[in-house]
């Protein structure tokens, strides 16, 4: 396979300006689950920048289980992400849901995220292979590691080698947490592929109090970075408030991750 260490013989690094994902730097992606308003996003971006984040996350298009839940602001949300990038210098990662929106999202995003539900949308993955932009490919919540890697291969085989994997938890029989964050997958990916991998302990646990401990565990297992949800006022969030860190919790987690990164020969540049 094109993503195999047997092919590349070295760790692939995805470069985004000065940011290098897959090297010895630990990359922090953070922000609200959804872009809700200009005030909310700019305040969140300010905290991400101040406390050491590198990339701002925020959903303009939101896949929701219920059709009556908040679905995102669409293009207006993308414009707000672009404004936040202009004000803070942070790069932006946001989710693409529909192939009809590829050109639109590609115009605004620095990294295009493909969510769990679209991991095996092969027609969409083929089209992403024709872009010259990093793709953050989240693991499907019921996907095996092999299925996940083969989904990445669709993108790579069609011309785009800038794939970043994201372990975001899988569905198991356990009900104490939202998902089960698969730390095995991180070490396996590092051993068997050349692709960078980050973890999402927010979706992986669904519980604010568990985000920092699992983030540290993921970095110890070999993750190249993390993506977490952070909201200025989680109690008022329109989605996933219960798993979103408060700004002060995010700041504390960064301090702890700095120590963990040093222990595993990575650098957290803040």
TrEMBL record:
Domain of life, source organism: Bacteria
The keyword Iron is annotated on this UniProt entry = no
Q: A single GO BP annotation from the record?
A: aromatic amino acid family biosynthetic process
Instruction: Tell me which residues make up the DAHP synthetase I/KDSA domain.
Output: 12-260
Q: Does the keyword Transferase apply?
A: yes
Q: Which InterPro entries match?
A: Aldolase_TIM (IPR013785), Class-I_DAHP_synthase (IPR052899), DAHP1/KDSA (IPR006218), DAHP_syn_2 (IPR006268)
Pfam families for this protein:
DAHP_synth_1
MF-aspect GO terms: aldehyde-lyase activity; transferase activity
Sorted alphabetically, the keyword list is: Transferase
Q: Which PANTHER family match?
A: PHOSPHO-2-DEHYDRO-3-DEOXYHEPTONATE ALDOLASE
Protein name (Swiss-Prot/TrEMBL): 3-deoxy-D-arabinoheptulosonate-7-phosphate synthase
